[in-house]
UniProtKB/TrEMBL annotation:
Protein name, UniProt field: Iron-sulfur cluster carrier protein
Naturally occurring in which organism (per UniProt): Anaeromicrobium sediminis
UniProt keyword Nucleotide-binding, yes or no: yes
Taxon lineage: Bacteria, Bacillati, Bacillota, Clostridia, Peptostreptococcales
Subunit structure: Homodimer.
UniProt function note: Binds and transfers iron-sulfur (Fe-S) clusters to target apoproteins. Can hydrolyze ATP.
One Gene Ontology molecular-function label: ATP hydrolysis activity
Keywords on record: ATP-binding, Hydrolase, Iron, Iron-sulfur, Metal-binding, Nucleotide-binding
Family: Belongs to the Mrp/NBP35 ATP-binding proteins family.
Length: 263
């Protein structure tokens, strides 16, 4: 375990208060952004019951290999290393009907028994919510901190507050919040439309003592390219956006002192 911590720069969990806010998409975009910026990145897809990372990268037909008792992650086109239960199933649409502790063990194995090599960042896509499964996983891996993904409506419902409180209760660093689907840019007039209201996120997060890292728009090209397994193409087309995202993430993660190590 110590060896693993030494060969991986930062281990970052990506969490969300509920499903469908774009947590896996933002995890993938973060990986692409950091990788575009020359960083060595791995993704551990710990969203065991709804694993979508392989599909977004178009590697869902590949399978994880085991060499010398070590699991070899699958590499994406740009060299991002990925492990996911979906890369082990006979059929990717087979459901995984496991309870929390079993999922926790599986994720722990994905973490410890994988030949990650040297990485600057290992991003862990945690299951959505604040229930038993994400809790068990957060206890089984040694996170340096978490990024919380939310949608504007999520804040209204105060669901994001639950994620922040859960991380606080566990003594885990919170690097900040990424607001997904924050606005929409009109094709015709190029204007930003804040469908769910503008500027409401930052003051509410400030009250909670958490920074807003980035606001990402609703982008139909993003949906399309993710669905086609070509998120890396989105990263190439939107190089400037990715560069900005990666700088924000790196500045924040580099700035926070590591206080927590669960195991
Ligand atoms: N900013 C965005 N613009 C357009 N589409 C988006 C955006 N973010 C996510 N999506 C789309 O929304 C859908 C859900 O996203 P995703 O699978 O990342 O959610 P999730 O929070 O990880 O869900 P779960 O945790 O339930 O698995 C996907 O089809 C994705 O392509």
């Amino acid at each position: 375990m110590e060896g693993l911590k030494m060969s991986i720069g930062k281990i970052v969990g990506i969490m969300s208060g509920k499903g469908g806010v774009g947590k896996s998409s933002i995890t993938s975009l973060m990986a692409v952004s950091l990788s575009n910026n020359g960083k060595r990145v791995g993704i551990l897809d710990a969203d065991i019951t709804g694993p979508s990372i392989p599909k977004v990268f178009g590697i869902n037909n590949k399978r994880i290999m085991s060499v010398d008792n070590k699991i070899r992650p699958v590499k994406t086109v740009s060299g991002i290393k990925v492990t996911s239960i979906n890369l082990m199933l006979d059929n990717e649409d087979d459901p995984v009907v496991w309870r929390g502790p079993l999922v926790g063990n599986m994720v722990k194995q994905f973490y410890e028994d994988v030949d990650w090599g040297e990485l600057d960042y290992l991003l862990i896509d945690l299951p959505p919510g604040t229930g038993d499964v994400p809790l068990t996983i957060m206890q089984s891996v040694s996170l340096d901190g978490v990024v919380v993904v939310t949608s504007p409506q999520d804040l209204v419902n105060l669901i994001v507050k639950k994620s922040i409180k859960m991380a606080n209760l566990m003594g885990t660093n919170i690097y900040g919040v990424v607001e997904n689907m924050s606005y929409f840019v009109c094709d015709e007039c190029d204007k930003k439309h804040y469908i769910f209201g503008k500027g409401g996120m930052e003051p509410k997060l400030n009250e909670l003592g958490v920074d807003l890292l980035y606001s990402f728009p609703i982008n139909p090209d993003f949906t399309e390219l993710c669905d086609e397994g070509r998120i890396e193409v989105f990263g190439k087309i939107n190089f400037d956006l990715c560069e900005k995202f990666s700088h924000v993430v790196e500045n924040k993660i580099g700035a926070i002192k590591v206080e927590n190590c669960c195991i």
